[in-house]
Automatic annotation (TrEMBL):
<dbReference type="InterPro" id="IPR036188">
    <property type="entry name" value="FAD/NAD-bd_sf"/>
</dbReference>
<dbReference type="Pfam" id="PF02852">
    <property type="entry name" value="Pyr_redox_dim"/>
</dbReference>
<dbReference type="Pfam" id="PF07992">
    <property type="entry name" value="Pyr_redox_2"/>
</dbReference>
<dbReference type="InterPro" id="IPR050260">
    <property type="entry name" value="FAD-bd_OxRdtase"/>
</dbReference>
<dbReference type="InterPro" id="IPR023753">
    <property type="entry name" value="FAD/NAD-binding_dom"/>
</dbReference>
<keyword id="KW-0558">Oxidation</keyword>
<protein>
    <recommendedName>
        <fullName>NADH oxidase</fullName>
        <ecNumber>1.6.3.4</ecNumber>
    </recommendedName>
</protein>
<feature type="domain" description="FAD/NAD(P)-binding">
    <location>
        <begin position="3"/>
        <end position="307"/>
    </location>
</feature>
<dbReference type="InterPro" id="IPR016156">
    <property type="entry name" value="FAD/NAD-linked_Rdtase_dimer_sf"/>
</dbReference>
<dbReference type="GO" id="GO:0016491">
    <property type="term" value="F:oxidoreductase activity"/>
</dbReference>
<keyword id="KW-0520">NAD</keyword>
<keyword id="KW-0274">FAD</keyword>
<keyword id="KW-0285">Flavoprotein</keyword>
<keyword id="KW-0560">Oxidoreductase</keyword>
<comment type="similarity">
    <text>Belongs to the class-III pyridine nucleotide-disulfide oxidoreductase family.</text>
</comment>
<keyword id="KW-0676">Redox-active center</keyword>
<dbReference type="InterPro" id="IPR058076">
    <property type="entry name" value="NOXase"/>
</dbReference>
């Protein structure tokens, strides 16, 4: 029997805890989390704040009691302040200032990520906030309910920014979306796709300010009123900041080996360089099959999988992660985009000699009603023809197709293997000369 201490009870920590409690109940598990809630699905923030779903109630999928029922000791609203890795001891403080000391045989760090705080004057003004925690969602929701809040500025047109800009627009606000890059979602998609999403945003009334750098927030009586950029000044009653996540590495950064961005470096078993210390989710690195190297990708899906892997290793069953492709998707005003692996910029940055093939067509035969256009691009290594990435976009639900490319990247499939791949045909779903086949066939 081992005593296991787990720090952080959100998606990664929960997956690790459930794996341990369900498969290795003989161990003792102590869980710490500094928040009031656990298991909040951030992916639902924009849906709820934008009133595409009525409330936040179902955005939590478990609670403290569920872990206590399985005999875990759970300390909520208790922040771990320090770890003595030599003495195998963690020191935590409850919200009332009471110190708790726990020794461990094995430690799992699941402390997640923190939003990157841009260095902008006036960031401490009222109604300037991040969009990460449930509490952030509540604050944004309340601000949007205020009829005096008419102008909303969103900083960062990545996944959170684009989603929350849509939400604010759905709440009837005048929305400006700022990004340093010259298009939205630039880290996930090539401009052939992002330019379409830029148009979708504009057509739905969002003002895109791309290639524009925010420099200052000005306010009156402590409350934000204005966003100042290198190109102009704009009224803003609410500023929502989303320029990415950084790993929350405060507890271990001095002792544990870290990646370039500070994430705890882990191997395929989620082990850090310190014996009996594991790291999972957004605070840790991950192995990318596209890069064939270690990288950092903050996604709930990765968090859950890494938590399961760590849970088994800590429990005593050796298990290696199979790596990830960073598969992701977004749906904005009915326009869907999905991607996996590397886009062209990321592949070139990683040193690949890149080729790509693309195709655009109706999803279904022309005689079918309710039919939409589909765009697909497949990126491959010019030298060994290995698939490195894929992107697809449509008003249709094309989401499931990207999983095939995820597996293709994982299994190092070449573009040529996809040319005559057996893909079924039924008019309700696709065309006999479907877009995946057509893109692959036309690869140079
Ligand atoms: C608005 C939004 C939308 C998103 N949408 C998606 C999506 O659609 N798909 C997707 O795959 N991903 C999405 N993500 C990303 C996803 O939420 C994160 O990748 C995921 O939450 C990572 O889980 P985690 O458990 O590693 O870290 P976190 O969720 O950051 O959790 C870390 C936990 O550790 C606790 N903690 C930290 N330090 C301490 C300490 N010292 N003591 C005690 N407790 C501590 C925190 O309180 C927290 O509960 C979204 C994120 C946001 C914010
Ligand atoms: N649908 C999904 O899968 C989903 C949804 C939300 C969040 N997430 C994940 O959560 C994490 C955080 O999301 P996010 O949207 O904060 O990050 P992100 O990395 O998706 O986007 C950050 C954006 O901010 C921009 N940026 C960076 N510095 C800037 C600056 N100084 N000024 C202006 N713009 C700047 C970047 O160009 C980028 O477009 C990501 O890993 C994301 O994948 C995923």
């Amino acid at each position: 029997m081992s005593k296991i201490v787990l720090i952080g009870a959100n998606h990664a920590g929960i997956a690790a805890a459930n794996t341990l409690l369900d498969s290795y109940p003989e161990n003792e598990l102590v869980i710490f989390d500094r928040n009031t809630n656990l298991s909040y699905l951030g992916c639902g923030t924009a849906l709820w704040v934008g009133r595409q779903i009525n409330s936040y109630e179902h955005l939590f999928y478990t609670n403290k009691e569920a872990f206590e029922d399985k005999s875990a000791k759970v300390h909520m609203e208790t922040s771990v302040e320090s770890i003595d890795f030599d003495q195998k001891k963690v020191v935590a403080k409850t919200k009332d200032g009471v110190e708790i000391v726990e020794h461990y045989d094995k430690l799992i760090l699941a402390t997640g990520s923190v939003p990157i705080a841009p260095n902008i004057i006036g960031s401490d003004l009222e109604n300037v906030q991040f969009v990460k925690l449930f509490q952030d969602g509540q604050k944004a929701d309340q601000a949007l309910a205020d009829p005096n809040v008419k102008e909303v500025a969103v900083i960062g047109a990545g996944y959170i920014g684009v989603e929350i800009a849509e939400a604010a627009k759905r709440r009837g606000k005048n929305v400006r979306l700022f990004d340093a890059a010259d298009t939205c979602l630039n880290t996930y998609y090539d401009s052939w796709f992002t330019k379409d999403m830029d148009k979708v945003l504009e057509n739905n009334g969002i003002h895109n300010h791309f290639g524009e750098l925010v420099q200052e927030y000005k306010g009156v009586d402590g409350k934000v009123t204005t966003v100042v950029t290198d190109k102009g000044e704009y009224a803003a009653d609410l500023v929502l900041m989303a320029i990415g996540f950084a790993p929350n590495n405060t507890l271990g950064k001095d002792k544990i080996e870290t990646f370039t961005n500070g994430a705890y470096k882990v191997n395929l078993k989620q082990e850090t360089n310190l014996p009996d210390v594991y790291a999972v989710g957004d605070c840790a690195t991950i192995y990318s099959n596209a890069l064939e190297d270690t990288t950092y990708i903050a996604l709930a899906t990765n968090a859950v999988r890494s938590g399961i892997v760590a849970g088994h290793n800590v429990g005593g069953t050796p298990l290696e992660s199979i790596g990830v492709q960073g598969s992701n998707g977004i749906s904005i005003f009915g326009y869907n985009m999905v991607s996996t692996g590397l886009n062209i910029a990321a592949a070139e940055k990683a040193g690949f000699e890149v080729k790509y093939t693309e195709f655009e067509d109706l999803q279904k035969p022309g005689f079918m009603k309710d039919n939409g256009n589909v765009k697909i691009r497949i990126i491959y290594d010019a030298k060994n023809r290995r698939v490195l990435g894929a992107q697809m976009a449509s008003t249709e639900d094309i989401s499931m197709g990207i999983h095939m490319f995820s597996l293709a990247i994982e299994e190092k499939v070449t573009i040529d293997k996809l040319k005559l791949l057996d893909i079924f045909f039924l008019p309700h779903f696709n065309q006999p000369y479907n877009y995946i086949t057509m893109a692959a066939l036309s690869a140079e």
